[in-house]
Amino acid sequence: MNNIKVSVIIPVYNVEKYLEQCLNSVINQTLEYIEIICINDGSTDNSLKILKKYETKDNRINIISKTNEGLGAARKTGLDNASGEFIYFVDSDDCIVKDALKKLYENGINNNSDIVMLDILEYNEKNNELTKNSDDIYNVGKHFNNKKIDFNNFFFTISKVKLFLLNRGFNTSYKFYKHSFLKKYDDFYFPKHTIFEDMFFHVQVLLRAKRISFCPYLLYIYRTTNENSIMNNTNNSIKIFDIFDAIDNIKNFLTENKEMENYNMEFKFFVIEQLRQYVSRVSKEYQSQFFEKTGKYLAELNLSNSELDKIPYYSTTYHNMIKTIQLGKNGK
What CA–CA distance (Å, rounded) separates 211 from 126? Predict the structure, then answer.
């Protein structure tokens, strides 16, 4: 087990439709010496049966079953049982390209990275389309001016790409982690029974990493059309209010670590953008309460006219939200 290069951690909860595709993408990786830790988070469908079938065929697979506590807790269980040099989290309704782990591992080793960030593809199964995000939202490399960068010999800190701390790529799977870096800390946040569970962990690791690198390949395939996914079912659930807890946790962490001044505007962008996503989609059952709370959070930003002038996109978004909230209060 001391020779394990990468521990792949896969939280599994009622994903029988997609699980085999995910597992096939991991077991067929070109990198040798990996372990695959599957956390069965209280599945009630055929997910566990599928896991056991694969376990009999591949001795690299380790199944851990637990009561359902959500993605965060499942990832923590996987991390507690991992022995690899690097850690990679894969969501069980997504998959990775065949040489993903090899490319990530080589980049991490060459750069002695605490974290390797990566680029992604998005998959829409309704029309069977695999596309790259048009605005390169997750591509860190686009934010460096030098187009001839050798990314196998290039590292940075998050202060060089500040937007990515709070407004890009929160998903745990969009980063590849050195295990010894994660083990330096005992307070990484893996919440139970909550959504937006990856935001705070994302901020913690990126702020603490001394050496971040970027692997300039499309390695992770994110499924956008899983109707049963947590995020696709958020709007009609009381769990939509978890976004406020996520904002508070990040605000407190930045303040306690004396980083709020350094990331003040990025934090304001973050609050506006996150709340924007749900103001227009929250179900009528929770609309009034959500609008009221959103209004308070926007007021606490205390945005000046000069700040709004500097951020035309967020300024428009901000004013549109205020208008939506006011119309909602008036019953229109």
Answer: 39
The answer to whether 211 touches 112, Cβ cutoff 8 Å, is: yes
pLDDT at residue 47 tops 90: yes
What CA–CA distances, in Å, run from 63 to 31, 32, 38, 56, 81?
21, 20, 5, 11, 11
**Are residues 226 and 241 located together in one domain of the fold?**
no
Instruction: Please give the average per-residue pLDDT across 181-203, as a whole number.
Output: 85
pLDDT more than 90, % of the chain: 66
What is the distance in angstroms between the CA of the first residue and the CA of the last residue of the chain?
A: 62
Domain tally, the chain: 2
Residues 219 and 274 both lie in one domain: no
Distance between CA 101 and CA 330 in Å, rounded? 53
pLDDT in tens, 5-45: 999 999 999 999 999 999 999 999 999 999 999 999 999 99
Going through 106-198 in order, the beta strands assigned E by DSSP cover 115-124, 129-132, 175-178
Looking at the fold, whether 239 and 260 belong to one and the same domain comes out as: yes
pTM over 0.70: yes
Res. 4 pLDDT band, cuts 50 70 90: very high
CB 191 within 8 A of CB 70: yes
Closest CA to 247 of 310, 288, 311, 301: 301
Beta pairing class for 175-178 and 95-96: unpaired
Dihedral sign from CA coordinates of 180, 183, 189, 193:
positive
